[in-house]
Amino acid sequence: MPRLTRLTPDTAVGASRDLLAELVSRRGQVGDMVSTMAHSPAVLGGYLQLSRAMGRAKLDRRISERISIAIQVRQGCGLCLDAHVSAARALGVDEEEIERARAGTSADPAIAAIITLALQIYREPTSITDEQIAALREHGYSDRATADVVGVVALNILTGAFNLLAGLTPESGTDA
Fold it and tell me: Where, if anywhere, are coiled coils annotated (predicted)?
């Protein structure tokens, strides 16, 4: 059961009212996470800006979805996990690779290496080594794509933590 109430452009105040009104006018509706985030204009605005920025990431979306799956398995946000599994499927990631992503790896050594990096960023960024970054370059990842991993992880921490705080679950929520 949700712990925080959902807001609408009519019930939100200040900057949140403006952000929600703009989103509703563009999309027709907003999901539970966004409408609940509207309690904090800072969180909602930050989420929207980071989400838009990550839409321009250089990292292949099929890889970022696998990273998101690996992070959400560990963070425990079922709503986010379901959303990222669905997105991975829609992008053509097969079920075996989705299961590997849940385990924090991939059959492809290059993808396994970048998932490993993402999990280190999530758990223990001090453990990242120069050799590991050099190996990512050898796998063909640009510095930009490698840097984008931090954004993917940060976005997952934000959405997962918010959904867990707000009590949004696959049964109660409609977006991650």
Answer: none
Burial 136-172 (b: 16+ CB within 10 A, else e): beebebeeebbebbebbbebbbbbbebbbebebbeee
Structure tokens at 163: 């959904």
Closest CA to 68 of 27, 121, 32: 121
Q: Look at residue 172 in the predicted model and tell me its pLDDT.
A: 64
**DSSP string covering 43-102:** HHHHHHHHHHHHTT-SS-HHHHHHHHHHHHHHHT-HHHHHHHHHHHHHTT--HHHHHHHH
Tokens encoding 8: 């609408």
Task: For 89-148, write each residue's pLDDT tens digit.
Answer: 999 999 999 999 999 999 999 999 999 999 999 999 999 999 999 999 999 999 999 999
